[in-house]
Amino acid sequence: MRSFASDNNSGVHPLVMDALIKANKDHAVGYGDDPWSEAAEKLIKEHFGDNTTPFFVFNGTGANSVALQAVTRPFNSIICATTAHIFVDECGAPAKMSGCPLIPVSTPDGKLTPELVKPHLTNFGVCHHSQPGAVYISQATELGTLYTLDEVKRLADFIHSFGLFLHMDGARLANACVALDCTFKEMTVDAGVDIISFGGTKNGMMMGEAVISFLPEISENIKYYRKQSAQLASKQRYLAAQFLPYLGEGIWRQNANHANNMALKLFNVLKKYPQIRLSQKLESNQLFFYAPKDFLEELMKEYFFYYWNEEAGEARLVTSWDTTDEDIAAFESSVERIFSVKG
């Protein structure tokens, strides 16, 4: 089955699979005291800077939950966009594990700005109210849009002036950095991000993420939050080993660039039809668009993808590292056929 539903549906890059097979030999000390974890941590420091501390975890929800626990206390609140993954798609896990309410902010494009955040920075020192503690953003956003380096830095500087921390969900960070032609370090540490959930599952890895802290005071207790959150792998070498080719051999860049280019090809198919229009700018590997509902229903019989807003006739297509030109051509044929039948 081929689909445009999610980059989570894609396979595992052969070099990542090979790294897992190579790690599957002999015995190794558990819980991270192994050579694969050591080598992966070194690579992460090379990409993000020496003053970084990585912690490997199982998945994205776990990474976000651990990271947000590290920068809050239960009497804090976490500010995010209404479309944020932690608000919409994680079953309340970050709120449950941190004890903090999530404060959703409406945005037209999934991006938070100082102007949007400022009204929620109130009641400091008032014991009757949750105290603003952190701001969560994702790069790329859940709407496929991107923060520029200046936009991240401006938001970071603003919330830091109020004593808040900035957490970035980097599940699709590779797609963003390729699109903006910048390094991981430029997008995170240099822009003022305090902690990040760094993922590769959507970009050719099998599983596993890394919570990466950029401040010693944040790093201090993350190992305890990770254990309490059931995110410490006993056989951690299998999580860490994937990062060796992913970062060391540049798979992250190659895969993300391919996925972004495939999204552009899909866009070039859709833009031929006046009945279809984008609802968000195409900036990464996600396309959001409006189309007639009868067209979408017919297309869904042949391809697996999601409505974003069924009532409005808005859908989402996502390309992956293993999307092929043949996938695009077959999709184009389906679109052309459906519109020809429906007139």
Structure, explained:
The chain is an alpha/beta fold and 343 residues long. The chain has two domains: 14-248, Type I PLP-dependent aspartate aminotransferase-like (Major domain) (Aspartate Aminotransferase, domain 2, 3-Layer(aba) Sandwich), CATH 3.40.640; 252-342, Aspartate Aminotransferase, domain 1 (Alpha-Beta Complex). It contains 15 helices and eleven strands. Helix 1 packs across helix 12 (237-248), helix 8 (173-180) crosses helix 13 (251-270) and helix 13 (251-270) packs parallel to helix 15.
Task: For this entry, give a set of tags.
single chain; about 350 residues; alpha/beta; Aspartate Aminotransferase, domain 2; Aspartate Aminotransferase, domain 1; 2 domains; seven-stranded mixed beta sheet; four-stranded antiparallel beta sheet; 15 helices; about 40% helix
